[in-house]
Write a structure and sequence with these properties.
Blueprint lengths: L8 E5 L28 H9 L8 E6 L3 H7 L8 E4 L4 H17 L4 E6 L3 E2 L2 H18 L2 E6 L10 E9 L2 E8 L4 H9 L3 E10 H11 L4 H6 L4 H7 L5 H6 L5 E6 L3 E2 L7 H4 L8 E9 L5 E12 L4 E6 L2 E6 L6 H5 L4 H4 L2
Parallel strand pairs: 1-2, 1-4, 2-3, 6-10, 12-13, 13-14
Antiparallel strand pairs: 4-9, 5-11, 6-9, 7-8, 7-9, 8-10, 14-15
Length: 348
């Protein structure tokens, strides 16, 4: 029998500014607020996917303090007190701990939570929802921390991996180990061995995460004990650490469910070729764009028109007062470019 999850909460991580979508992304308009996949911001896409998983009144959005007004504008149905301002970047362990703490206060420690990031692309929305609900049910039944591991479609060196261990029930497995971003050869070995991509999709009861944080995560637990009613003081006192490193890699209560729903973390401009509608020649446009004898290009045009003629494998981002032209390969590391540019150019 499926667990009773009528009180399920959703947590959306919507912080960070990122440089991988420069020059379109800025500190005031980061990736999660950009219309990279559809005509609406990625955060809006995420909330729409979650609408049948948890209601707006049981959805928390954690974001940078400076982005709170923009996030509220994108998510008017989410109560204002559910948009949590992080005064500084403090890592996913702190964000998810504070979210679980709030859920426990409002609905009790046994309330189930599913956690996602605001800036993903998902092809099979119904499959995605089913995976979240299955993970939530498993977390309640097993009183464990459950992650959804995406079944890889190819070796990817930009993602972490999960090695599944012993079977629990059905497709649910214990986690044998987490593997940080591998090189190409190791990625191929991990895929061949049946490992999953580490998607960052999690499910747990609030009390189970908080107990594991208190047991294993010394970077966060003391701050929660010292400042249980002061979010700003809590985030100011924690040591920044990812939930994977601070809790999941240290705990023995981690399980994994496989997921196959066309997931992408949309990490670079090049990734848009796999998540945007493409023409017959593999070009992925957004805005007023024309291709002639051009193949496998990514173009984003805002307030202008772009024409590509006789070129292949380019990334072109054209905005008012700024144009970036690079290749799909070199677009994988824009940070190296940004480190060399004058500050006024980087800020546009």
């Amino acid at each position: 029998m499926a667990a009773d999850t009528t009180g399920r909460w959703a947590v959306v991580l919507a912080g960070g500014v990122g440089s991988r979508f420069w020059p379109l992304s800025t500190p005031e308009r980061p990736k999660q607020l950009l219309p990279l996949i559809s005509p609406q911001p990625m955060l809006r896409d995420t909330l729409d996917r979650l609408a049948t998983v948890a209601p707006a009144e049981r959805t928390l959005i954690l974001t940078n303090a400076s982005l709170v007004p923009a996030v509220r504008a994108v998510a008017p149905e989410v109560p204002s007190e559910n948009v949590i301002a992080e005064p500084r970047p403090a890592g996913t362990a702190a964000a998810l701990t504070w979210a679980a703490h709030l859920v426990a206060q409002r609905s009790g420690g046994e309330a189930p939570i599913v956690s996602v990031h605001a800036d993903w692309a998902v092809h099979d929305v119904e499959g995605f929802r089913a995976a979240l609900i299955a993970a939530s049910d498993a977390a309640v039944t097993e009183q464990a921390l459950v992650t959804v591991g995406v079944v890889p479609t190819a070796p990817d060196t930009g993602l972490g991996y999960i090695e599944p261990g012993d079977a629990v029930r059905g497709p649910l497995r214990r986690v044998a180990r987490f593997v940080e971003k591998p090189d190409r050869a190791q990625a191929e070995q991990l895929v061949a061995a049946g490992c999953f991509w580490n998607s960052g999709i999690f499910a747990w009861r609030a009390c189970d995460l908080l107990n594991e944080v208190r047991t294993h995560c010394h970077e966060v637990a003391p701050a929660l004990a010292a400042y249980p009613t002061d979010a700003a003081a809590f985030f100011g006192a924690v040591e920044s650490i990812a939930i994977d490193v601070g809790v999941l890699e240290r705990s023995s209560r981690i399980m994994v469910l496989p997921g196959t729903f066309g997931w992408s973390d949309v990490g670079t401009w090049s990734a848009l070729q796999s998540v945007r509608p493409c023409d017959a020649h593999g070009n992925a446009p957004a805005g007023r764009v024309f291709f002639r004898d051009a193949t496998a290009n990514v173009v984003h045009a805002e307030g202008t028109t772009v024409v590509l003629y006789g070129v292949d494998g380019l990334v072109v981002v054209a905005l008012d007062g700024m144009t970036l032209v690079t290749t799909t390969e070199r677009a994988l590391d824009l940070k190296a470019l940004l480190d060399t540019l004058p500050a006024d150019v980087k800020r546009r």
